[in-house]
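Students often ask what a 'structure token' actually looks like in practice. Rather than answer in the abstract, let us consider Serpentine Receptor, class H, a protein of 318 residues. Its sequence is given first.
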Amino acid sequence: MGEYRWYLCHQLFWSYAFDLFLSLWKPIPLWPFYLGYSGGILNGIPSKFSSLPLIVMFVLSTGMGFSIGISLFHRYVQASPMSKYFQEYSILWRRILVYAIIFILLLCGICIPIAYNIEDAKIVRASIESQNVDMKVIFERESSITGYDPALNGNESAIFCLILILILIIVILCLIILYFNFLRILSKNKSNLSAATFKLQRILFKALYLQMVFTLILLIFPILSTFILIMYGIKWSSKFSICVLMLTSIHAIADFAVMTFFVKPYRIFIISLTKKILTKIGFKFKVTTVTPLVISTTGSSTPAIEHFIRNERNNMNL
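Now compare that with the structural description of the same chain:
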């Protein structure tokens, strides 16, 4: 596993943070406006901080996507250990520096336009209420309402939403292309890898492939569908978003299950940690001890000893 375990931990951190925050926030869109409010514990947040959860959500989304991307890239590089680029990639401090710069640039590219287009909550409220007087009751009841009014920024918020949809579609296409390209690289460099390394690469890539599939099914497709419904002003987009929220909330569980099943060191660590926790709260586990044997050189005792050893091995394998 080597340093790849840190990529897995990095992936799990962002995945768990994203799903946890999404479950706590529970954003509910208000059709047909580019607005939403919290259905969770952030429901009572003051209106002056109402846009903060939106920015945090985009930061966590960027972090999760970035963690999956660098994990996939790491597997790519590991599949070509004889290449010159692999030697450059092995310099840890340079790799971390490049990753940090890319991550900061991604955050700036996503969060700066959001912060730039956020209008004062009072101005947005006045504009929305002028379009629909019924919204006054909702604004008074839900202080966590956040979002945009395209009428205030020349439809820039709508254009930004469309750009996000296009980015998600491009990400889907890139994942498909990268999957087949990795198989090509792995087959090409099979002669440069030992049998054990090649087998490990295939197992880890299967795990990464399933993680990407779950990301597509449980995150990208549902969120993409919600964006499209809101863009076209579909009336039942609010109800659909609640179903999407329930679907996305199980992403971390699916991610954890894949890693536990495919990555043996991680599975052993989880089992060991679980046993330690259960032991502290009173549970007891049977510990199998193997008694050292002194094997006699006499021919009469050898069959009995071999039979005993076979029984012990069978018991340990159960």
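One point worth highlighting: DSSP finds twelve helices and three strands in the chain. Ask yourself how you might have guessed this from the sequence alone, and why that guess would often be unreliable.
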